[in-house]
Hints:
Layout: H1 10-18, E1 23-24, H2 33-36, H3 42-46, E2 57-58, H4 73-80, E3 86-90, H5 93-106, H6 116-122, H7 125-129, H8 132-142, E4 148-152, H9 153-158, H10 160-170, H11 181-185, E5 191-193, H12 196-207, H13 211-230, E6 231-233, H14 239-243, H15 248-276
Parallel strand pairs: 1-2, 3-4
Antiparallel strand pairs: 5-6
Helix pairs in contact: 8-15
Amino acid sequence: MLAGAARSGTSALAAQLGAHPDIDPGKIKESNYFSRNLERGSRWYENLYAERQPGTFRLDASTSYTSPKYPDALTALVAAAPDVFVIYAVRKPTERAVSHYLLRRHYFENEPAESFGDALSQSDFYAETGDYSKWIPALYDKLPTDQVLVVPFEVITQRPIEATAQICRQLALSDPPEAGQHARRHRNDVVQYRNGAAREVAKIVRQSAAYPWLRHALGPGRTRKLRGVITRDAQLPTAAESLATCSPAQLEMLRELDARAGNAVSEQLDRQDARWGLSWCEHSFAFQDIAG
Length: 292
């Protein structure tokens, strides 16, 4: 389970893991089953994957499982699969929050706030999604130590071979072919639909019962090509411009979030490094004082 955090390299990592011959990526990257689709039933979820085979892992990369919008998702997940292996990607909290806002505002167009500062004043959603001082303890409260791996964004984007290899070691799998290539091809940059009609058609298709099977039939390569046809590069504000819309109180809140979440990440990466012989804690310094 690649359970979050949103906008932390999860699409690249999911593509990388899904290329492994012993990992079934399913028909769609994010089923959101344990968050907002439980009412569809277990048969719907089972049908997203091939028939179970010994030695084959299923991959669900739904970042909504660690979203404040769905506080019961982790409980539902662990109840259904107590032996689940959870990968949790982390990114600088303020940087992640800005990227998340821009995606929802300019691609999905389901964020009404016209600026990042306005969005923060209307909801705690973007800050709480990246509050690792909450999510990391929540994961370890529900699962044993060897069933959770916290992966920094910088490792996913700069050292994809190492990130994938460590996950494969945890699962007792061989390294996947072409390690590193899939992550670079599947970066989830923010784009915009070319027009309103394209956006509405895409929305209808995503919400339809046929969407998982259509996406599976197209495959990841053709899906991304189709996406390129109906979208264009977005003209986005920079991170600095987004933060300039924040009030002094909001910037102070973000600084406190960076420090609090950064400490939680540093402590966890330090323990992981010691346990599994990694060197990921060196990236934890990047979590400090982003809003400054």
